[in-house]
Amino acid sequence: MLEKKTLICIICPVGCQIEVCRDDDNIRSISGYGCKRGKEYAISELLNPVRTITSTVTVRCGEHQVVPVKTDKPIPKHLITELMREINKCSIQAPVRMGDIVLQNVLNTGANIIATGNIPVLQQE
Ligand code: SF4
């Protein structure tokens, strides 16, 4: 059975409306994309949707109580809820430097959770 789907491309601010027609096994046609990256996005979104995830992790003994983190590569969309549970269970000791790995190979995806900010140790007066 043929299924038609409309996607808004999120790769750049233009936001092309991409029409995809597929059957159970194959993508039959793609139209409406403004460039090759959009076509690749639409194919990935239908066959294996992925996302880069951003969040925060608790920091112990730091000048701030949390540090922003993100995946260092996109992960399958269906794992986002489980990934957020792993991130929420996690805490890290200050000092934290941008690029530090907070969780390695999270959920066996090959992606790491990395810090995207610097948190120095809290100085006691
Ligand atoms: S298809 Fe290309 S031009 Fe259109 S929104 Fe996606 S990246 Fe931008």
Features:
single chain, 125 residues, alpha+beta, N-terminal domain of TfIIb, CPE0013-like fold, five-stranded mixed sheet, three-stranded antiparallel sheet, 10 strands, binds iron/sulfur cluster
User: Roughly what percent helix?
Assistant: 10-25%
Overall pLDDT score: 95
Tell me the radius of gyration. 19 Å
Give me the count of strands.
Answer: 10
Helix and strand run: EEEHEEEEHEEE
Q: Within the CATH hierarchy, at the fold level, what is the topology of the largest domain? A: CPE0013-like fold
The molecules bound to the chains, other than polymers, are: iron/sulfur cluster
Tally the helices.
2
Morphology call: elongated
**SS-based class:** alpha+beta
CATH architecture of the largest domain: Roll
* Number of structural domains: 2
How would you describe the overall organization of this protein?
It is a single chain. With 125 residues, this protein is an alpha+beta fold. It folds into 2 domains: 3-47, N-terminal domain of TfIIb; 54-115, Roll (CPE0013-like fold), CATH 3.10.530.10. Helix content is 18%, strand content 34%. It has 2 helices and 10 strands. The longest helix is centred in the N-terminal third of the chain and has 12 residues, at 36-47. The chain starts with a strand and ends in a 10-residue tail after the last strand. The structure holds iron/sulfur cluster. The site of iron/sulfur cluster has 11 residues, from helix 1.
